[in-house]
Every structure is written in C-alpha cells, then in structure tokens.
Amino acid sequence: MVDEVRNLFIEVYKLDAECDQIATDEPLFGLSSRFGLDSMDTLRFIAVLHERYGLDIGSTNTDSFRTLDKICETLEADRKSANEGG
C-alpha cells in the first residue's frame, strides 16, 4: 500500500520525484517538508484518499497525514474500523 499511496502523492502534486526518492517517514506537508505543501494541500490529499479508498474524513486528524507511514496507518485503521462496523 505504501508504494500505491506514494505514487498517488507524486501524481496529485505533479512532483518530479521517483517513488523510491520519498522515504516513508519523510514529512510530506508543512514547514519541514521539502515539497512546499501546506495545510490546504493536506486537505486536498485527504479528499483524494477519500475518493480513492473511501476514507472516513469526518473523524480524520490532519496530523495523521504527515508521512507516508502515518497515511498508511490511518488508511488501515479506517479499513479495519469499517470492516468491524464501527
């Protein structure tokens, strides 16, 4: 799933980066990000994840989207919650 989300990130923001050039623990958004993406960009990516994966955005904390690792953890937790009916 990490590679899929990483490729989606590159596609959405039209980055000149190869998949293996973005570490799973690298900040994607905010001041410490090398991509120059801000909070509005975070919200845009959350919306894309909602469309692609059905992510429940009602209970989503934007801090869960700082790195690829955190995004994948959030998606897995959301899927697990949906499968458990909660």
Automatic annotation (TrEMBL):
Highest taxon in the source lineage: Bacteria
Residue ranges of domain Carrier in the record: 1-79
Gene3D superfamilies assigned: ACP-like
Name this polypeptide is given: Acyl carrier protein
